[in-house]
Amino acid sequence: SRSIRLAVIPGDGIGQEVVAQGLKVLSAALPQDVKLETRSYDLGAQRWHATGDTLPDAELESLKDHDAILLGAIGDPSVPSGVLERGLLLKLRFAFDHYVNLRPSKLFPNTPTPLAGRPDIDFVVVREGTEGPYVGNGGSMRTGTPDEVATEVSLNTAHGVERVVRDAYERADSRPRKKLTLVHKNNVLVHAGHLWKNIFDRVGQEYPEVTTDYLHVDAATIFFVTQPERFDVIVTDNLFGDILTDLAAAVTGGIGLAASGNINPSGAFPSMFEPVHGSAPDIAGTGKADPTATVLSVALLLSHLGYGDEAARIETAVASDLAERDAAAPRTTDEIGDALAARVSG
Amino acid sequence: SRSIRLAVIPGDGIGQEVVAQGLKVLSAALPQDVKLETRSYDLGAQRWHATGDTLPDAELESLKDHDAILLGAIGDPSVPSGVLERGLLLKLRFAFDHYVNLRPSKLFPNTPTPLAGRPDIDFVVVREGTEGPYVGNGGSMRTGTPDEVATEVSLNTAHGVERVVRDAYERADSRPRKKLTLVHKNNVLVHAGHLWKNIFDRVGQEYPEVTTDYLHVDAATIFFVTQPERFDVIVTDNLFGDILTDLAAAVTGGIGLAASGNINPSGAFPSMFEPVHGSAPDIAGTGKADPTATVLSVALLLSHLGYGDEAARIETAVASDLAERDAAAPRTTDEIGDALAARVSG
Ligand SMILES: CC(C)[C@H](C(=O)O)[C@@H](O)C(=O)O
Ligand SMILES: CC(C)[C@H](C(=O)O)[C@@H](O)C(=O)O
């Protein structure tokens, strides 16, 4: 009989609440014969305050011993900015070589968008997850003095760029429109930019059916609001991907719906699935958090583990739920989770 | 009698066309007793193809000897990406220490916006112009091989950050709403981010009437489309400012209206005014380019040189012209320039 060993990191703020709904829907979606074993990890702001730990080696080791990780949200205003992000969230992405940070964006019918004219949005951003300005290679000297100098180094390797670009071509090739857009800023960040562009062009020769396109990141933000329907698959650097996917979430109904997978396609380490949103401490405990982004992240998780039908059932359930949502009658986190679970099992 | 010595760099693509309209409106706006002396510099793609020069030292020297610079647009697909941007445009911004890259964003009545509900947008981005990832401090090794490593270094100094932050506080303090938002990514780019945040907080103590706010750049893009009315003055790093101001232009009627000033507040070097848009080679020569962004940049130029009334007259002319525009009856570049000049003189 089959089984899934799932590590769960609820994290901070609304993390706990949305993860509970994600697990509810996961259980509802799984076939009877699949055994789900979950182990919860107490990591995040509370743990850091209590012990000073962000992600001890023993727990990093133990996390490895799972098929996948489901993460809620990390970060709290009581913790200095960067401590948990770098010490926990990014540490996981880097340690487990999550080089494909997959972020689909789709505007569902009936879902509110700030854009006039409700454009037809359905694209996926393949954000590089292990390089670029996120490597943590920076420092400061004469810190706190009028002579301080602070640096941040973006590191980019042919190895790191090629593997994520290849993954993006594969995804584009398997979609009906077969279109891939590279986003960078190669007129200013010429060294990193040319590395990306050269590899993008070279690998493209192996995918003659994929139409390609290049945009500077600033121009890309314009098209996200004026012509988002032009995008199919986008591949981009870690920082540009961070910025673009929040904007993509905003135009497709908000951060409450945006799912993501931090994927290690080789399978050498467990992949990690999380909503794009943060810990939203302002609404933690109020029942106002929308668990849909986490539920859609569970669908990405199932799909990654080979449960494609179950993933599709969750996506259909979300689409139907969204189609019937009534902005005038908001439901609680729990109610949305229950409704989705019911649709998935029914 | 007074005079303005203006250096003009029309540049590439539509640059020539829009600059011609900018000069037309400038002449119409200036009081009779002000003598306008212009000198045009042949810089850009054509020059580079002919001579290999982007900005020779002699011309850089000669540019210094002016009260201001009006620039059209730089860049052409026939030139490798980065050559003209780094060798001409950014070289000017750096050589003339244009540390305040000023980019106002206002949604005028009747102007189309991709946002539903036509929010009330009226903010200004103070983008740092001489530091950050734009310094050109990067390189690559084993270039073109599977072992290539490419870097981009973001350099940030207390000196450079404090002066632009101070400028932004001054601007916020002089506006009715007195609100200043810092945008960075200090949960990931911790060294540069903390330098910015610390200086932002410290300088803020000198401006007790200014309300402050901090946003990560990814979150800021969300608010640009869901709640742009929340912004008054934004101060941010060179790269984040580049991205945010294109998005700001998109939501306030497009890049055809977005003006900018590359300002050296000390007056040690001439400040440079340019539309935010690029050279748009696809529409060059068709008469489709909207010169309004250049005309509004001329208003920023006049205001910088102390001609506040004349600047205001141009802004009023643009507002009236926009109010009467008919999307079904587009005018040529020249017609728009003529109409604006007529309004300004009338
Ligand atoms: C919390 C933060 C470190 C993270 C990132 O920048 O990657 C988040 O914004 C995201 O997009 O997952
Ligand atoms: C052309 C390019 C170098 C420039 C920049 O990145 O600053 C442009 O996008 C701008 O915003 O003025």
Automatic annotation (TrEMBL), chains A, B:
<comment type="pathway">
    <text>Amino-acid biosynthesis; L-leucine biosynthesis; L-leucine from 3-methyl-2-oxobutanoate: step 3/4.</text>
</comment>
<feature type="binding site">
    <location>
        <position position="218"/>
    </location>
    <ligand>
        <name>Mg(2+)</name>
    </ligand>
</feature>
<feature type="site" description="Important for catalysis">
    <location>
        <position position="185"/>
    </location>
</feature>
<keyword id="KW-0100">Branched-chain amino acid biosynthesis</keyword>
<feature type="domain" description="Isopropylmalate dehydrogenase-like">
    <location>
        <begin position="5"/>
        <end position="340"/>
    </location>
</feature>
<feature type="binding site">
    <location>
        <position position="246"/>
    </location>
    <ligand>
        <name>Mg(2+)</name>
    </ligand>
</feature>
<dbReference type="Pfam" id="PF00180">
    <property type="entry name" value="Iso_dh"/>
</dbReference>
<keyword id="KW-0479">Metal-binding</keyword>
<keyword id="KW-0432">Leucine biosynthesis</keyword>
<comment type="subunit">
    <text>Homodimer.</text>
</comment>
<keyword id="KW-0460">Magnesium</keyword>
<dbReference type="InterPro" id="IPR024084">
    <property type="entry name" value="IsoPropMal-DH-like_dom"/>
</dbReference>
<feature type="binding site">
    <location>
        <position position="127"/>
    </location>
    <ligand>
        <name>substrate</name>
    </ligand>
</feature>
<keyword id="KW-0963">Cytoplasm</keyword>
<feature type="binding site">
    <location>
        <position position="103"/>
    </location>
    <ligand>
        <name>substrate</name>
    </ligand>
</feature>
<dbReference type="InterPro" id="IPR019818">
    <property type="entry name" value="IsoCit/isopropylmalate_DH_CS"/>
</dbReference>
<comment type="similarity">
    <text>Belongs to the isocitrate and isopropylmalate dehydrogenases family. LeuB type 2 subfamily.</text>
</comment>
<comment type="function">
    <text>Catalyzes the oxidation of 3-carboxy-2-hydroxy-4-methylpentanoate (3-isopropylmalate) to 3-carboxy-4-methyl-2-oxopentanoate. The product decarboxylates to 4-methyl-2 oxopentanoate.</text>
</comment>
<keyword id="KW-0560">Oxidoreductase</keyword>
<feature type="site" description="Important for catalysis">
    <location>
        <position position="134"/>
    </location>
</feature>
<dbReference type="InterPro" id="IPR050501">
    <property type="entry name" value="ICDH/IPMDH"/>
</dbReference>
<feature type="binding site">
    <location>
        <position position="242"/>
    </location>
    <ligand>
        <name>Mg(2+)</name>
    </ligand>
</feature>
<dbReference type="GO" id="GO:0003862">
    <property type="term" value="F:3-isopropylmalate dehydrogenase activity"/>
</dbReference>
<dbReference type="InterPro" id="IPR023698">
    <property type="entry name" value="LeuB_actb"/>
</dbReference>
<keyword id="KW-0520">NAD</keyword>
<keyword id="KW-0464">Manganese</keyword>
<feature type="binding site">
    <location>
        <begin position="278"/>
        <end position="290"/>
    </location>
    <ligand>
        <name>NAD(+)</name>
    </ligand>
</feature>
<keyword id="KW-0028">Amino-acid biosynthesis</keyword>
<protein>
    <recommendedName>
        <fullName>3-isopropylmalate dehydrogenase</fullName>
        <ecNumber>1.1.1.85</ecNumber>
    </recommendedName>
</protein>
<feature type="binding site">
    <location>
        <position position="93"/>
    </location>
    <ligand>
        <name>substrate</name>
    </ligand>
</feature>
<feature type="binding site">
    <location>
        <position position="218"/>
    </location>
    <ligand>
        <name>substrate</name>
    </ligand>
</feature>
